[in-house]
Amino acid sequence: MNPIKEKRYLNRVLEKFDSNKRPIYIRTWFNFVLWVPTGLLIATGIRLFEKGIINIWFILIGSLFIGGLFGIFSIIQLSEKYWPFIKEHLNKDSIKRRLDELDS
User: Fold this and answer.
1) What are the backbone angles phi and psi of residue 39, rounded to the nearest 5°?
2) What gap in Å lies between CA 87 and CA 22, rounded to an integer?
3) What DSSP line would sit under 25-44, residue for residue?
4) Residue 45 Cα to chain centre, angstroms
5) What is the largest CA-CA distance in the chain?
6) The whole model's pTM is what?
């Protein structure tokens, strides 16, 4: 791995060790707020297709894009949700030693 990228990644892991605040996107109300506009957007696209204003390809490509975003978002949510359990098994001192090696 590139030393600059490794250093950036290890610094980010150390920041996560010390931080106890929960990100906004893993709160329970956030998914509801995200799904409502998405449902409205898809429903609007279907209505526009039925009226002949847009082509079916816009709906298909848009739905594919939205599905991909939701998939990525779900992975990020799960990684944040399980971080407290994972960090107990990481060695903070080893990470600091490696950062010192990269600095010298």
Assistant:
1) -60, -40
2) 15
3) GGSHHHHHHHHHHHHHHHHH
4) 26
5) 66
6) 0.69
* Helix residue ranges per DSSP H, the chain: 3-18, 28-50, 56-86, 92-103
Tens-digit pLDDT string for the chain (104 aa): 788 899 999 998 888 888 777 788 788 788 888 889 999 998 998 999 999 998 889 888 988 999 999 899 889 888 888 888 888 888 889 989 999 988 88
Asked if 14 and 102 count as a contact pair (C-beta separation under 8 A), the reply is no
| Tokens standing for residue 101 | 């090696």
- Residue whose C-alpha is closest to residue 13's, from 26, 101, 5, 73: 5
Residues 6+ apart with CB under 8 A from 98: 6, 10
Residues composing the chain: 104
Domain parsing of the chain, residue ranges: 3-103
Query: How many Å apart are CA 75 and CA 18, to the nearest integer?
Result: 22
